[in-house]
User: What shape does this take?
Amino acid sequence: MRTSNYLLSTLKEAPKDVETTSQKLMLRAGMIRQLASGLYTWLPTGLRVLRKVEGIVRQEMNNAGAIEMLMPIVQPSGLWKESGRWTKFGPELQRIKDRQNRSFVLAPTHEEVITDIARNELKSYKQLPLNVFQIQTKFRDEMRPRFGVMRSREFTMKDAYSFHLDKESLVETYAKMHQAYCNIFTRMELDFRVVSADSGAIGGATSHEFHVLAETGEDLIAFSTDSNFAANIENTEALSPFKRQAIAEKTMTRIEAPEVRTVVQFAKQYGISIEKTVKTYLVKASDKMQEDVIALVVRGDHELNETKVAALCDVAYPLHVLTDREACEYMTGGKGALGPVGLGVPLIIDRSAAVLGDFISGANAEGNYFCGINWGTDVDATKVADLRNVVEGDPSPCGQGKLFLKRGIEVGHIFQLGSQYSESMGATVLDVYGRQQAMEMGSYGIGCSRVVAAVIEQNNDNLGIIWPDAIAPFQVAIVPVSGHKSSRLLDVAESLYTELVSKGMDVLLDDRGRFGVMLKDMELIGIPHIIVIGEENLNQGFLEYRERRTGKKQLMSVDVLKAYLENL
Amino acid sequence: MRTSNYLLSTLKEAPKDVETTSQKLMLRAGMIRQLASGLYTWLPTGLRVLRKVEGIVRQEMNNAGAIEMLMPIVQPSGLWKESGRWTKFGPELQRIKDRQNRSFVLAPTHEEVITDIARNELKSYKQLPLNVFQIQTKFRDEMRPRFGVMRSREFTMKDAYSFHLDKESLVETYAKMHQAYCNIFTRMELDFRVVSADSGAIGGATSHEFHVLAETGEDLIAFSTDSNFAANIENTEALSPFKRQAIAEKTMTRIEAPEVRTVVQFAKQYGISIEKTVKTYLVKASDKMQEDVIALVVRGDHELNETKVAALCDVAYPLHVLTDREACEYMTGGKGALGPVGLGVPLIIDRSAAVLGDFISGANAEGNYFCGINWGTDVDATKVADLRNVVEGDPSPCGQGKLFLKRGIEVGHIFQLGSQYSESMGATVLDVYGRQQAMEMGSYGIGCSRVVAAVIEQNNDNLGIIWPDAIAPFQVAIVPVSGHKSSRLLDVAESLYTELVSKGMDVLLDDRGRFGVMLKDMELIGIPHIIVIGEENLNQGFLEYRERRTGKKQLMSVDVLKAYLENL
Assistant: This one.
């Protein structure tokens, strides 16, 4: 490719509202442009990278025996009602109506459609195991799209689905996919971790996430200091504290502090340790509870873990935390005034909150707090559960060492779905004995567009992006210094270009002319190997080779340089 | 690929409601499955063909200097309002609302988004010409999806858009695209014609369609017996008849025929030539007319040409033919009773109808007809226009020969858009003199998924599909006769398979076992080269080679066969 016939679209500055390095560099390097919130166009340079990522994914999936197909983005609501996800998925599921007022969805994943295909096409255990995949556009109507293609609404995903007669076969394919994912991310030179995870809206029991470690990651991963333990904190158990419930020393008293809106503020103002306070949340109860609402109580310095809470059988799924308006039936003032004493709804107490004594909470009236509360004496604590996120220093649930946290970008997720979809949708095969049997299923996703951003988060410097060779938009850039003035330099550049291209390399020949501008752009775009052709060096028979990652410069003869590039 | 690890999904019978050969064969060969009306899953065999079609398209577009990028499917309505297509496009445009009640479309084409990108990224004539393309999913909420992927709602299209400083440059790129399209369809071994066409909802002046000739085509193409003239009948002028208006011989009289609903029925019943009747249509008038409604009059044996009518400046765009309910203001009974006499709305008369004398029409009352009508005497015919489809035998508008008609499947369409989008959306660049100038644009589409069906329409026999080598899902099938019983046959098959695959060929090894079933499937799927490995032949050192297209069988030694396949 020659820049004169290309859409380079580099920018000196990124727009102001950009939050992450990858988003900034993708905009500046002319890889993407925002069309609307969460909707991005992939400009030529970006698409080249995306296609190479998809190429690696496709190759490793094929190597692992998966078969490629392609399912529609627009899907009839009927299938989603069959699986139950029409109601379960929440507002991220983009629903549409066609001209005849029939309901459809823009698919966020394809479990329903593939299960429908499986129940029609698979009749016998002899056709199993089967593992199919697609690389397809997905849509999620994110509440808060952000970080560019990292959390966008329309995105490209590789999703695979496997079908099995039994659990054993599922586990085998799951392990193959685990290995394929490791191969994929290794080929992209990513620093990643495999962590155990929650299955969320997809469902199933066992599940692992693949995380690229980066400070801008939206997920927190818990690692153990003394073992291989690694899990998304969504899914990391906070063990019960070793201590028993503290012995009561005080009597509960009400204190008025009209200006103070939350118990945490109250503790700060009065110099009380925040660990002696509890926060209270009101959430919708599940259908099988007599009450509509349940209160959850965690220590003031802890955070509610929404994944754990949503999984409790007393709590409605998906989780619905009451709004101020809905909550005002239970107290006066804002939700910061909530507390367990006298609230009049069933309570579930976090394990760490349940061992407190003489603690403090809101008194369900604006600016009113109870001090010296004790479980049993002042309020019952019959239901105790793990409701909170782990924090650094917590004991590891594996039993060895303490937890420390790192941020991660989720680029892959694999699930052992079991038979939940095949049972709800009637996807059965005949087994060896001629009996109908619901198939075991697995589901395996990689966010291809997100991977592109994740690679940049781990590969950049103050000049721009630094691509690993395997997914660089171009492997080699040729920059003739003032090439527009010197036909001799341009001739050398053209002949080198033609030769490298004929050997199957992706080469960008910058034939624009201003050396400083050209070099800066090639560095910003992150082309790993840059060849500068200058008058003086050429007179001595040399070209200058620059390695983008190290910044190392080296003079080489044309032949040595060609041999070097071919050996990469 | 081995069938044992593949999703073959062939069917003995296609579902009953299937209308065309390609749809039937795509279903039977396990290429596609219908998810809902107009929505199809591409099974592995189908996707292999689609990807090869896309690959050829991509290669020829790259060769012609076009640059690939990727634009979102979901697009904000604002851009469509800017271009005016939000109102113009009609109900085929799928509109959606997101969780915040903002309006979006599922894009049927991408002129708006690319023009938005161009106005942001292109600043100077030095960046022109630029030709960008994408291969992307499109959506049209078709009133009547049919013929499988031929007219589906979700489909894959290659769309390209070019930007130019002047018309001359546009014409140059247009010619390049014309040539690229010819290369593409020639590589797929299609029998196609380039015909001049109407620009429809896309807009612009000059436009050509690429049609694959096939009886199942939805379009009618008019050719001249004596010249190269070829045009979609949407866009073929029906010349004025050579004869003058006939001289009146009769006086208009009203006849009651209570059982007769239309003038054509009336003529049949009374043995009158249908060419002596006229049909009348009521359509919405354009905004600039004083009246709301206009009547169009064509001869009873002619068909209204909606493209021509919609383009008339007196008629509203898009065309709206009045429903029975809307029309009842102007007559009693059904619309078949309509006639020009006493209708009370402005008339536009087709050229062929305008030369009639003593003709017959409805009398705007159920079962009432006027006979012996003459223009001027009984009703005015001040406005005459070309309103009808041409028919076989009409003089060719090129002036040479007569027209004959053939059916075609539109697989490509190229447009010289001019500056309509760049002007309405303000996409300008600075020209050589530093003046802002709206860019000239071209737009170029190929329906990739439709191409697959079109190839099948032209390449099939009673056994199934016959793929051209370039887009076959597999080039070679290896069928060991009773391979499951004889490890020797399977060994030969495996070793041949490994060798051919290592040479880059797409090979399907059928390792299922029942020869008849295997061979029938390979023929149905249409694999061009089939190798049968049988015990007896093998004992004599031979394999059997079968050419799918000719059915020719030939015994060859392994070495001769390998050399033959490599030379293809």
Q: What stands out?
A: Chain B has a mean pLDDT of 94. The first helix of chain B runs from residue 21 to 28. Chain B is about 25% helix and 25% strand. Chain B touches chain A through 49 residues (CB under 8 Å).
